[in-house]
Protein backbone atom coordinates (compact mmCIF):
# COMPACT_ATOMS: atom_id res chain seq x y z
CA UNK A 1 0.00 0.00 0.00
CA UNK A 2 1.13 3.53 -0.74
CA UNK A 3 2.81 5.29 2.15
CA UNK A 4 1.83 8.86 2.96
CA UNK A 5 2.36 11.63 5.44
CA UNK A 6 -0.57 11.59 7.82
CA UNK A 7 -2.07 14.87 9.06
CA UNK A 8 -3.99 13.93 12.24
CA UNK A 9 -7.62 14.92 12.88
CA UNK A 10 -6.54 17.00 15.88
CA UNK A 11 -3.66 18.64 14.00
CA UNK A 12 -3.51 22.24 15.21
CA UNK A 13 -1.80 23.52 12.08
CA UNK A 14 -0.06 26.89 12.04
CA UNK A 15 -1.26 30.35 12.82
CA UNK A 16 -1.84 32.42 9.66
CA UNK A 17 0.32 35.22 11.05
CA UNK A 18 3.38 32.98 10.90
CA UNK A 19 3.27 32.76 7.08
CA UNK A 20 2.62 35.02 4.10
CA UNK A 21 -1.04 34.82 3.14
CA UNK A 22 -2.65 37.22 0.64
CA UNK A 23 -4.42 40.09 2.42
CA UNK A 24 -7.65 39.36 0.54
CA UNK A 25 -7.92 35.92 2.19
CA UNK A 26 -6.79 36.79 5.72
CA UNK A 27 -10.27 36.60 7.23
CA UNK A 28 -11.33 33.49 5.31
CA UNK A 29 -8.98 30.89 6.72
CA UNK A 30 -8.81 29.00 10.02
CA UNK A 31 -5.18 27.93 9.86
CA UNK A 32 -2.40 26.76 7.61
CA UNK A 33 -2.45 22.97 7.63
CA UNK A 34 0.30 22.16 5.08
CA UNK A 35 2.86 24.92 4.45
CA UNK A 36 4.13 25.28 0.88
CA UNK A 37 7.64 24.10 1.78
CA UNK A 38 6.35 20.81 3.17
CA UNK A 39 4.26 20.26 0.01
CA UNK A 40 7.43 20.72 -2.05
CA UNK A 41 9.53 18.36 0.09
CA UNK A 42 6.94 15.60 -0.06
CA UNK A 43 6.48 16.14 -3.82
CA UNK A 44 10.22 15.70 -4.38
CA UNK A 45 10.04 12.27 -2.76
CA UNK A 46 6.91 11.29 -4.73
CA UNK A 47 8.82 12.10 -7.93
CA UNK A 48 11.59 9.71 -6.88
CA UNK A 49 9.15 6.90 -5.98
CA UNK A 50 7.27 7.30 -9.27
CA UNK A 51 10.42 7.23 -11.39
CA UNK A 52 11.68 4.18 -9.52
CA UNK A 53 8.45 2.29 -10.35
CA UNK A 54 7.51 3.66 -13.77
CA UNK A 55 10.92 4.63 -15.08
CA UNK A 56 12.45 3.04 -18.14
CA UNK A 57 9.50 3.77 -20.42
CA UNK A 58 7.98 6.91 -21.86
CA UNK A 59 5.52 8.42 -19.36
CA UNK A 60 2.50 10.53 -20.29
CA UNK A 61 1.64 12.72 -17.31
CA UNK A 62 -2.07 13.59 -17.36
CA UNK A 63 -2.99 16.66 -15.34
CA UNK A 64 -6.49 16.79 -13.90
CA UNK A 65 -7.45 20.47 -14.17
CA UNK A 66 -7.90 22.81 -12.61
CA UNK A 67 -7.03 21.75 -9.06
CA UNK A 68 -4.07 19.61 -10.08
CA UNK A 69 -2.10 22.24 -11.97
CA UNK A 70 0.28 23.39 -9.21
CA UNK A 71 1.07 19.88 -8.03
CA UNK A 72 1.48 18.77 -11.65
CA UNK A 73 3.93 21.57 -12.45
CA UNK A 74 6.01 21.03 -9.31
CA UNK A 75 5.99 17.22 -9.56
CA UNK A 76 7.14 17.41 -13.17
CA UNK A 77 9.92 19.81 -12.24
CA UNK A 78 11.22 17.26 -9.74
CA UNK A 79 10.92 14.43 -12.29
CA UNK A 80 12.81 16.61 -14.78
CA UNK A 81 15.53 17.23 -12.21
CA UNK A 82 15.91 13.46 -11.70
CA UNK A 83 15.99 12.95 -15.48
CA UNK A 84 18.73 15.48 -16.08
CA UNK A 85 20.93 14.44 -13.15
CA UNK A 86 21.14 10.68 -13.42
CA UNK A 87 22.45 8.06 -15.84
CA UNK A 88 18.98 6.76 -16.57
CA UNK A 89 16.22 9.02 -17.84
CA UNK A 90 12.71 8.64 -19.26
CA UNK A 91 10.95 10.78 -21.86
CA UNK A 92 8.02 12.62 -20.37
CA UNK A 93 5.13 14.16 -22.28
CA UNK A 94 2.08 15.94 -20.91
CA UNK A 95 -1.65 15.92 -21.43
CA UNK A 96 -4.53 17.72 -19.74
CA UNK A 97 -8.10 16.88 -18.87
CA UNK A 98 -10.67 19.04 -17.13
CA UNK A 99 -13.26 17.61 -14.76
CA UNK A 100 -15.80 19.23 -12.49
CA UNK A 101 -17.65 17.52 -9.65
CA UNK A 102 -17.92 20.14 -6.94
CA UNK A 103 -20.38 22.91 -6.06
CA UNK A 104 -19.70 24.97 -2.91
CA UNK A 105 -18.08 22.51 -0.48
CA UNK A 106 -20.01 19.43 -1.63
CA UNK A 107 -19.04 16.73 -4.09
CA UNK A 108 -21.96 16.35 -6.51
CA UNK A 109 -23.00 12.99 -7.91
CA UNK A 110 -22.13 13.91 -11.47
CA UNK A 111 -18.53 14.00 -12.61
CA UNK A 112 -18.29 16.08 -15.77
CA UNK A 113 -15.34 15.86 -18.13
CA UNK A 114 -15.34 19.33 -19.68
CA UNK A 115 -12.51 19.53 -22.15
CA UNK A 116 -8.95 18.45 -22.60
CA UNK A 117 -7.16 16.48 -25.28
CA UNK A 118 -8.50 13.39 -27.02
CA UNK A 119 -8.03 10.55 -24.55
CA UNK A 120 -7.59 8.14 -27.47
CA UNK A 121 -4.03 9.47 -27.86
CA UNK A 122 -3.20 7.61 -24.62
CA UNK A 123 -3.70 4.21 -26.21
CA UNK A 124 -0.70 1.93 -25.54
CA UNK A 125 1.00 4.51 -23.27
CA UNK A 126 2.19 4.48 -19.66
CA UNK A 127 -0.06 7.09 -18.10
CA UNK A 128 0.45 8.89 -14.79
CA UNK A 129 -2.72 10.69 -13.69
CA UNK A 130 -1.90 13.68 -11.47
CA UNK A 131 -4.72 14.83 -9.16
CA UNK A 132 -4.97 17.31 -6.29
CA UNK A 133 -7.28 15.50 -3.87
CA UNK A 134 -9.30 12.30 -3.64
CA UNK A 135 -12.35 12.54 -1.43
CA UNK A 136 -15.16 10.10 -2.28
CA UNK A 137 -12.99 8.68 -5.08
CA UNK A 138 -15.77 9.08 -7.63
CA UNK A 139 -13.92 11.53 -9.86
CA UNK A 140 -10.92 9.23 -10.16
CA UNK A 141 -13.01 6.09 -10.64
CA UNK A 142 -14.95 7.81 -13.43
CA UNK A 143 -11.74 8.98 -15.05
CA UNK A 144 -10.13 5.55 -14.78
CA UNK A 145 -13.07 3.85 -16.44
CA UNK A 146 -13.08 6.44 -19.25
CA UNK A 147 -9.37 5.94 -19.72
CA UNK A 148 -9.55 2.15 -19.76
CA UNK A 149 -11.68 2.37 -22.91
CA UNK A 150 -8.62 3.86 -24.64
CA UNK A 151 -6.49 0.86 -23.68
CA UNK A 152 -3.39 2.48 -22.16
CA UNK A 153 -0.53 0.10 -21.42
CA UNK A 154 -0.31 1.12 -17.76
CA UNK A 155 -2.13 3.65 -15.58
CA UNK A 156 -0.88 4.94 -12.24
CA UNK A 157 -2.50 7.64 -10.14
CA UNK A 158 -0.74 10.12 -7.88
CA UNK A 159 -2.82 12.37 -5.65
CA UNK A 160 -1.25 15.02 -3.46
CA UNK A 161 -4.02 14.59 -0.88
CA UNK A 162 -6.45 11.88 0.20
CA UNK A 163 -9.23 12.82 2.61
CA UNK A 164 -10.10 10.55 5.55
CA UNK A 165 -13.85 10.50 5.20
CA UNK A 166 -16.77 8.11 5.71
CA UNK A 167 -17.93 9.20 2.23
CA UNK A 168 -14.96 7.42 0.64
CA UNK A 169 -15.75 4.67 -1.85
CA UNK A 170 -12.61 2.88 -0.71
CA UNK A 171 -10.61 3.93 -3.79
CA UNK A 172 -6.89 4.63 -3.05
CA UNK A 173 -4.39 6.13 -5.51
CA UNK A 174 -1.04 4.41 -6.21
CA UNK A 175 0.92 7.34 -4.74
CA UNK A 176 -0.30 9.67 -2.00
CA UNK A 177 1.33 12.81 -0.66
CA UNK A 178 -0.69 13.43 2.51
CA UNK A 179 -3.73 11.92 4.17
CA UNK A 180 -5.81 14.79 5.53
CA UNK A 181 -8.74 15.28 7.95
CA UNK A 182 -12.31 15.59 6.70
CA UNK A 183 -12.34 19.41 6.34
CA UNK A 184 -12.64 21.59 3.27
CA UNK A 185 -9.13 22.54 2.16
CA UNK A 186 -8.02 25.35 -0.14
CA UNK A 187 -4.77 26.70 -1.55
CA UNK A 188 -2.02 25.37 -3.80
CA UNK A 189 -4.61 25.34 -6.64
CA UNK A 190 -7.37 23.74 -4.54
CA UNK A 191 -10.35 26.07 -4.76
CA UNK A 192 -13.68 26.96 -3.24
CA UNK A 193 -15.87 28.08 -6.16
CA UNK A 194 -12.70 29.14 -8.03
CA UNK A 195 -11.25 31.23 -5.17
CA UNK A 196 -8.07 30.42 -3.20
CA UNK A 197 -6.07 28.92 -6.07
CA UNK A 198 -3.84 31.98 -5.62
CA UNK A 199 -2.75 30.90 -2.14
CA UNK A 200 0.54 29.00 -1.67
CA UNK A 201 -0.18 27.00 1.49
CA UNK A 202 -2.92 24.43 2.01
CA UNK A 203 -5.34 25.91 4.53
CA UNK A 204 -8.64 25.12 6.22
CA UNK A 205 -11.48 27.37 5.07
CA UNK A 206 -13.64 28.90 7.82
CA UNK A 207 -17.45 28.78 7.86
CA UNK A 208 -17.79 32.50 7.30
CA UNK A 209 -15.86 32.20 4.01
CA UNK A 210 -18.07 29.31 2.86
CA UNK A 211 -21.00 31.77 3.06
CA UNK A 212 -19.05 34.67 1.56
CA UNK A 213 -18.00 32.78 -1.62
CA UNK A 214 -21.14 30.62 -1.96
CA UNK A 215 -22.79 30.39 -5.40
P1 LIG B 1 -14.17 13.06 -5.24
O1 LIG B 1 -14.76 12.76 -6.58
O2 LIG B 1 -15.23 13.13 -4.16
O3 LIG B 1 -13.04 12.13 -4.85
O4 LIG B 1 -13.63 14.52 -5.26
C1 LIG B 1 -12.54 14.83 -5.96
C2 LIG B 1 -12.55 16.27 -6.46
O5 LIG B 1 -13.32 17.15 -5.63
C3 LIG B 1 -11.15 16.78 -6.40
O6 LIG B 1 -10.52 16.61 -7.62
C4 LIG B 1 -11.34 18.23 -6.06
O7 LIG B 1 -11.41 18.98 -7.24
C5 LIG B 1 -12.62 18.32 -5.32
N1 LIG B 1 -12.41 18.38 -3.84
C6 LIG B 1 -12.64 17.41 -2.93
N2 LIG B 1 -12.34 17.81 -1.68
C7 LIG B 1 -11.89 19.08 -1.80
C8 LIG B 1 -11.41 20.06 -0.84
O8 LIG B 1 -11.32 19.85 0.39
N3 LIG B 1 -11.04 21.26 -1.36
C9 LIG B 1 -11.10 21.55 -2.70
N4 LIG B 1 -11.54 20.67 -3.61
C10 LIG B 1 -11.94 19.45 -3.17
MG1 LIG C 1 -9.25 17.72 -8.64
Structural descriptors:
single chain; 215 residues; alpha/beta; 7-stranded mixed β-sheet; 3-stranded antiparallel β-sheet; 4 helices; 10 strands; 25% helix; globular; binds inosinic acid; binds magnesium ion; magnesium; EC 2.4.2.8
In short:
The chain is an alpha/beta fold and 215 residues long.
Q: How would you characterize this protein structure?
A:
Keywords: Cytoplasm, Glycosyltransferase, Magnesium, Metal-binding, Nucleotide-binding, Purine salvage, Transferase. It is an enzyme of class 2 (transferase). Homotetramer. Strands 1-8-7-6-3-4-5 form a 7-stranded mixed sheet, sandwiched between helices. It contains 4 helices and 10 strands, in the order E-E-H-E-H-E-E-E-H-E-E-E-E-H. The N and C termini lie far apart (38 Å). The mean pLDDT is 92. The chain has helices spanning 36-54, 69-85, 138-148, 207-212, and strands at residues 5-6, 29-34, 59-65, 92-103, 106-116, 126-134, 154-163, 175-180, 185-186, 202-205. Inosinic acid binds next to strand 4, strand 6, helix 3 and strand 9.
Give the SSE layout.
Layout: E1 5-6, E2 29-34, H1 36-54, E3 59-65, H2 69-85, E4 92-103, E5 106-116, E6 126-134, H3 138-148, E7 154-163, E8 175-180, E9 185-186, E10 202-205, H4 207-212
Parallel strand pairs: 1-8, 3-4, 3-6, 6-7, 7-8
Antiparallel strand pairs: 2-10, 4-5, 9-10
The structure holds inosinic acid and magnesium ion (MG).
Q: Determine the strand fraction and express it as a percent band.
A: 25-35%
Please summarize the sheet with the most strands.
7 strands, mixed
The whole-angstrom Rg is 17 Å
Count of helix runs: 4
How many strands? 10
Q: Name every ligand kind in the structure.
A: inosinic acid, magnesium ion
The helical percent reads: 10-25%
Structural class: alpha/beta
Mean pLDDT rating: 92
Element-by-element helix/strand order: EEHEHEEEHEEEEH
Uncertain runs: none
Distance between the termini: 38 Å
- Strand order within the widest sheet? 1-8-7-6-3-4-5
Which geometry do the CA atoms define?
Answer: globular
